[in-house]
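Our preliminary data section would be incomplete without showing what the modeling component actually yields. Below, a chain of 315 amino acids is followed by its predicted structure, encoded as tokens that our downstream tools consume directly.
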Amino acid sequence: MTKTKSNTYAFEAENFPFLTLVENLNQTWNTLGLKDLQQVEQEGLLKLITDSGMTENSNFDPNSVLLVKASGGVPTGVYGPCVFRDGNMIILRVGDNVAPVTQNSDRLIVGDLRGKISVKAAKDAKGEEYPTAEVNFINTDKEVFKVRISLDYNNDELSVGELDAAIINEEPIINYLGQVPGQVIKMNELGVGEFVVKAISSTRTQYGESFKLHLGDGRVVWARGNSELLLRAGHQMKPDTPLTLIITEIEEFSPGKFSVTNALRERLPKLPGNTNPVVKTLEAQVSSSVQDNNHEESEAESDAESDEQIERMPF
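Predicted structure:
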């Protein structure tokens, strides 16, 4: 039997040379899909997306697999697949698509991919040393996918030695990871229905702690009302116990401002989610308006912090 050499895929700027031919890089930040890439550039991304299980998600978006920074229509940076922290979860993000990652000693596991974490030292323009990390995921065909790991450079304890020690001692690395950038939708955008919750994470802002519900279809939504009250009381997901977000009514009490009647239940959904919100218009009460404004300020602050994270991603 002839032994064939397995493929190794990387996702740095030099691995996407044909991006210089793309004409529609009109924004500073541009999201590209598989169709925007040459076949040789698609191959590794498509295999990584498939083997990680992202394509099985009903919310999978093939039109958002690569983030490109541009100036005057010319690419200046490529932001490919990366491992991030999202609250109390580790995720693999490819464009706007995500998949949950688990850690087993010094290995990361996502879908059918298994990878070993490696840490290296790099130097900045001032010659100061800082750590970088990546994981070499391997699929069942023994193909290798070199994926960056985003680190939290605001963590005073972060260093090459500290991170190496955590990996050698088989300790969780989540506290050393960079928080994922991105947007979280508001609960009224879901519509009336029941939605399975896969995980819960939180973001701390100047307004306090805000909680995020990670739904089974890949969407992430801010907790509010009854669900937020429960999470602030310390409720956590139980192993092997399903959790469902129930939305029974959405009320628009003033233009663009909504109250959402919702709750969390420890069971699977009984009703399908409805993407068309059922909205009632009510006369706003002062107390409700103030509460909703405070919540929106918290959401805006969290979104702003997430956007700032993009500039700090180690690519």
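The two ends are 41 Å apart (CA to CA). Helices lie at 39-51, 160-168, 225-232, 286-311. Preliminary results of this kind motivate Aim 1 of the renewal.
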